[in-house]
Amino acid sequence: MKTILLLVVLFVAACAVPEPAVQASNSGYSSSAFKEGPFLPIVRVAPKYPDAALEQRLEGYVDVVFTIDERGLVRDASVIESTNTIFDAAAIASVLRYKYKPTVIDGQPVVTDGVETRVKFKLPRSSSSAR
Hints:
Elements: H1 2-16, E1 40-43, H2 51-55, E2 60-68, E3 74-82, H3 88-95, E4 99-101, E5 103-105, E6 108-110, E7 112-121
Antiparallel strand pairs: 1-4, 2-3, 2-7, 5-6
């Protein structure tokens, strides 16, 4: 009998715990869904090496500036500097597929402009050179 009474008390106690409040916002996120702080990368996609650059055995980099929206998606990406324009389109395509945890201020995700990154293009090592 004590066991049944204990189970009933535990069940009632568990049911009495209120659910956390969810605050709606214009962005569709709850304010408790994001921890305060700057943006953080979640997914970085390697660029596709341009065929023409592979044929010419070119290496280099592209510096890209972009915006991270309140959902953590990249938009408005553009080239700042490039060692060779042959890499530009591949770098932009890669950066547009990145995903971030957005910057959060006062519990709300916000847009972050002027984010910069360097996309590097380095030739893969040939297995014949390892001999």
